[in-house]
Amino acid sequence: MATTARNQLRFITEEDKTAAEAQVRELQTDVDYETKEYTVELIVQKYLEGEPEDANELFVPTYQRDFVWHPDRQSKFIESVMLGLPIPYVFTASLAKDIDSDEGRVEIVDGSQRIRTLAAFLNDELILDGLEKLSKLNGFRFSDIELSRQRKFKRRPIRVIELSEKATESVRRDIFERINTGSDELRAMEKRKGIFTGPFYDFIAECAALPLFNEVCPISYRKQRREEAEEMVLRYFAYADRYEQFNHSVRSFLDSYLKEHQHKFDKEKLLSRFVSMLEFVRDNFPFGFRKSPTNSSVPRVRFEAISVGVTLALQKYPELNASKQDIADWLASEEFSKHTVSDASNSRPKVKARIEFVRDQLLRG
Fold first, then answer.
1. Which residues have C-beta within 8 Å of that of residue 297, sequence separation ≥ 6?
2. Contact criterion met (CB below 8 Å) for 304 and 354
């Protein structure tokens, strides 16, 4: 007997077992790797030497996320290294190149935050803070520590798993995704950046960087570092195209849409539609997507309702001329507030209701 994904028991036959084993054999990946140990000093050297020219031996690939660890998180990591506590392996991959172009470079598959934290600390760019066990080190830079302790810290070992040249980019991305699944370190859009690199993701990032978007939909610096702007833009395009097909899972809905459009989409058409929507919001909504002029951020459900609702209305009447007072009135209404409460985000009927509420209010005016 076995339990299915929906926790329903079913009888497992010998044929089921054989089919399952065949699937494992077919899909399992034969990845060669070596386990290595580098000192802190050496791994930082491999990362920093040639880094400004993108010629460093140990480098961060484009599919990895930006550096986002808070200084307190960096300090905690340095404390762990200082105390000799176990830290996760760094995963790297030796890149396959032909003889003429082989530079012997190694890609960081997972662990770039740790390596960059070590580099920042050794370069006196990090001031330790928030330490509890080594509280006497709070306020210290690396150069403030006793010379003997500096030398011991530089000799601390960092364990590395280096994948062989047989590991394709697809395999490396798969490892990146699996290592970070369920981790608080990565939000959904940060994982997508690591997995779905390509023309459409680049287009999403371009839209998120538009001054007009940032004008009408302000996002805090902290959230920007976590790909929140890109998340909002992706939600806009996905819901505008197929909100009626949305099921209960936002993540799978967005992942599927992004994967499907990675290399096939009409950039000019989508950009024009996005900008037209932003211009309409700027010209007709009192505070853009914000609830009031004092709000410094925009809830996702509010952004989805307004942005997609506006787009649907403009698709029906491109020269739509709405009453600003009417818009202000229904934005302040109890009904709109009910449609855009935070717990509505994963409900298919509520997604449909809030989008169509905005559309219908605009068309009514």
1. 218, 219, 220, 223, 290
2. yes
**CB distance 56 to 108 below 8 Å:** no
> What residue has token string 């699996």?
178
Buried b or exposed e, range 166-176, using 16+ CB within 10 angstroms: ebeeebbbbbb
Tokens read off for 315:
């698709």
| Confidence (pLDDT) at 54 | 84
pTM: 0.55
What is the number of other CB atoms lying within 10 angstroms of the CB of residue 343?
8
* Residue 92 and residue 108 in contact, taking contact as beta carbons nearer than 8 Å: yes
Which residues have a Cβ under 8 Å from the Cβ of 220 and sit 6 or more positions away? Answer: 296, 297
3-class secondary structure, 135: helix
Tokens encoding 197: 């690199």
Strands of 147-255, DSSP E: 157-163
Instruction: Quickly tell me which residue has 């859009």 as its tokens.
Output: 189
Picking from 68, 71, 51, 64, the residue whose alpha carbon sits closest to that of residue 90 is 64
Burial class (CB in 10 A: 0-12, 13-18, 19+), 160: buried
244 burial (CB, 10 Å; 0-12 / 13-18 / 19+) is: exposed
Q: Which amino acid is at 310?
A: V
**Which one of 29-43, 113-127, 152-166 scores highest in mean pLDDT?**
113-127
Are 327 and 255 spatial neighbours (Cβ–Cβ below 8 Å)? no
Sheet holding 33-39, edge to edge: 33-39, 157-163, 90-94, 106-110, 58-59
Q: Please, which residues bridge with residue 9 across strands?
A: 3
Tell me which amino acid residue 141 is. Answer: R
Q: Are 128 and 137 in contact (CB under 8 A)?
A: yes
- Which residues of 111-258 form beta strands (DSSP E)? 157-163
Beta bridge partners, 108, equal 92
The rounded distance, in Å, linking the Cα atoms of 15 and 256 is: 32
Residue, of 180 and 127, whose pLDDT is higher = 127
SS3 content of the chain, % helix, strand, coil (to 5): 55, 10, 35
pLDDT digits (tens, 9 = 90+) for 259-286: 889 888 999 999 999 999 999 999 999 9
